[in-house]
Amino acid sequence: QAYNCDGAGSPKPEWADRARKQVYLADYVLYHYVHYSTVTLGYMDTYESHQKDGSRYIPRFREHAPYERETNELTEAVMVHAKTIPVDQTTYYEKRCMYNYTKKWQGCWVGFPWPNGTEDKEHNHRDDGIEYNCFINESVETTWVPKLEQALMRSREKAISR
Fold first, then answer.
1. Can you tell me whether residue 125 is helix, strand or coil?
2. What's CA 72's distance to the chain center, in Å?
3. Fewer CB atoms inside 10 Å of the end CB: C or N, the chain?
4. Which has more pLDDT, 145 or 130?
5. Which run of H or E residues covers position 72?
6. CA-CA-CA-CA torsion for 101, 105, 94, 85, nearest 10 degrees?
7. Torsion angles phi and psi, residue 102, rounded to 5
8. Is 60 helix (H, G, I), strand (E, B) or coil?
9. Does the bond joining 113 to the residue before it have cis omega, within 30 degrees of 0?
10. Which residue would you say has higher pLDDT here, 46 or 62?
11. What would the pLDDT profile of 54-109 be if each residue is shown by its tens digit?
12. Residue 18 and residue 48: Cα distance in Å, rounded?
């Protein structure tokens, strides 16, 4: 398991709404902009095509409930980002991740989870001085990581048996 240590924890604070992820059915998505995907069918419509077939042209489409709603990250769905961290960002992590490191702008890119998922400003580091900087999502840890490990094991066994 590579990364289950989120700096904001779950559920996400309100400021994180701007980065909210969406799950969608490809055949449903007709008039919806989907970041990093192919153009959806609705964006191919033109005013002229609607004039020809007599249908109503709607230049914008907005989604509202029940088509769009927020999910509970603790019980319904969560996205764990796959991350690549360049070696120069993990070099000297023993210094960069210290609670009293003066160059905080360099960042600590190695995750050190808060014990029991609880932030404590007075006790913000381990005994060795490494500062806590993220939260473990227990649902990912106890449900999804074991399923992923099992699937990877089956895949590996299948590859070996070929």
1. strand
2. 13
3. C
4. 130
5. none
6. 170
7. -80, -15
8. coil
9. no
10. 46
11. 988 877 666 666 666 777 777 877 777 767 788 888 889 999 999 999 998 888 98
12. 34
